[in-house]
Design brief:
Blueprint (H helix, E strand, L loop, with lengths): L3 E6 L3 H16 L6 E7 L3 H11 L3 E3 L2 H6 L5 E4 L6 H10 L3 E4 L7 H13 L4 E3 L7 H11 L6 E9 L16 H4 L3 H17 L2 E9 L4 E3 L6 E3 L5 E8 L4 E7 L8 E8 L2 E6 L5 E6 L10 E4 L20 H18 L7 H20 L3 E2 L2 H10 L1
Parallel strand pairs: 1-2, 1-4, 2-3, 4-5, 5-6, 7-12
Antiparallel strand pairs: 7-13, 8-11, 8-17, 9-10, 11-12, 13-14, 14-15, 15-16
Helix pairs in contact: 1-9, 4-5, 5-10, 8-10
The structure holds nicotinamide-adenine-dinucleotide (NAD).
């Protein structure tokens, strides 16, 4: 087991989350190769140097291409706005590096397919930042569904609602620009929900989407005037899974009061499961076979019985946090580089998520159901 040299790009929200996880993963999971913090890149050289000093990176740079091509780097970690993902990922893959990239993988499915195809032709491993599926309780929910514990699943209800753009006076940022973000709430939050839905219930077969922009204009900090928002504030979709189960998805970045409202309800014949990311250490389980008068949801607290939890804490109910999910995500990538096993979610999964996001937009534009089964997507790929 030799250590792996990381080059991290970005010092924002995700740059910091990845830096925390890179520093911690070797002690929380000593069985995997340890990351070496070799190079920190930001577009601003001074910011890069300050961040590198604070977080213990050996060097700092404002040249991401040079870092990607450097022989000193084994893994390129991309934490920049969405429009930079494709160019950065392709450069890193071409240089033979393993790539860890934040979600969404790209601006469009066509871009995501280019990245996936380059990654498939190279002997490298990839991982995408769909951290919420790394929660040990989500693994438990998946087991409950797969083992039939709640019986045949007949309904899925998923939401990912936040309020970071609920205030119309919140300034225009990169997430509002089509060329820098792609879709709006759909790409930013919906991508997590789609990944989670397929992780739990298997492939989605078809989608019917509806998109709304609630606040069309926002103050532009650059010009001082107002600027037009170019993507959705709210995305809604009806979905049908290949297993036959219907579902709904509600995605919003203007849901006043919701901070990290990734919520799920999975209803089966014998029981139901409910989860809310704002209470990420609780899974609620309803068993229909309890006797009348005693039926009701019970609350399962995360604990050492759920794999990966005990690496952080020996006591049940004490809880993991958002950044711990990133530690598990990076462990998954490191383990995969060593073992050759697949990572979930890798760029293949991230590309499929992107294809479903695109299909929801296409559905909204054409006001019709879109077939997203693997066969249909392959045909779309041929004609694209
Ligand atoms: N997995 C999650 O839960 C999660 C949460 C938030 C954001 N994200 C994703 O992470 C990515 C980054 O989001 P964020 O919130 O950290 O954004 P941010 O705006 O906070 O940070 C972006 C960083 O990229 C840097 N940057 C921009 N252009 C650059 C360039 N040309 N070269 C080098 N550095 C450059 C900026 O200086 C900044 O440090 C996005 O793709 C976003 O969707 C994922």
């Amino acid at each position: 087991m030799s250590n792996l040299n990381f080059g991290l790009i970005g010092t924002g929200f995700m740059g910091k989350a990845h830096a925390i996880a890179l520093r911690a993963v070797g002690t929380v999971f000593p069985e995997v190769a340890h990351p070496e913090l070799v190079c920190l890149v930001d577009k601003n050289a001074t910011v890069a140097q300050q961040f590198a000093d604070a977080w213990g990176f050996e060097s700092a740079s404002d040249d991401w291409i040079g870092m990607c091509r450097s022989d000193a780097i084994d893994v390129v970690d991309i934490c920049t706005p969405n429009h930079l993902h494709m160019e950065m990922a392709l450069t890193a893959i071409e240089a033979g590096k393993h790539v860890y990239c934040e979600k969404p993988l790209a601006l469009t499915a066509a871009q995501a397919r280019r990245i996936r195809s380059a990654a498939e032709s190279a002997s490298i491993k990839t991982a995408a930042g769909f951290n919420y599926i790394c929660n040990p309780l989500i693994a438990a929910a998946r087991d409950m569904i797969a083992s039939g514990e709640i019986g045949e699943v007949h309904e899925f209800r998923g939401s990912y609602r936040e309020d970071y753009l609920a205030d119309p006076s919140t300034p225009y940022g990169w997430r509002c620009a089509r060329k820098r973000a792609g879709a709006g709430a759909l790409a930013d939050l919906g991508s997590h929900l789609i990944c989670m839905a397929e992780f739990l219930l298997g492939p989605i077969d078809s989608v019917l989407g509806s998109l709304t922009t609630v606040h069309d204009l926002r103050p532009d900090p650059v010009s001082g005037g107002m600027r037009t928002v170019e993507n959705d504030d709210i995305a809604q979709a009806l979905v049908v899974f290949e297993r036959g189960c219907p579902g709904t998805m509600e995605i919003s970045r203007v849901a006043t009061g919701k901070k990290c409202g990734l919520g799920l309800e999975v209803c089966g014949v014998k029981g139901s499961i409910a989860f809310d990311q704002e209470r990420m250490n609780e899974l609620r389980l309803y068993r229909a076979d309890s006797r009348p008068g005693r039926r009701g949801y019970r609350r399962i607290l995360a604990g050492p019985a759920h794999p990966d939890y005990s690496a952080f804490c020996p006591a049940p109910g004490h809880g993991l946090g958002f950044n711990d999910l990133k530690i598990i995500e990076i462990r998954n990538l490191l383990r995969s580089i060593e073992s050759g096993d697949e990572v979930h979610a890798d760029f293949n999964t991230a590309c499929r998520v992107q294809e479903i996001c695109d299909a929801i937009e296409t559905s909204h534009n054409g006001q019709q159901w879109i077939d997203v089964s693997s066969n249909a997507l392959e045909q779309l790929q041929l004609s694209a």
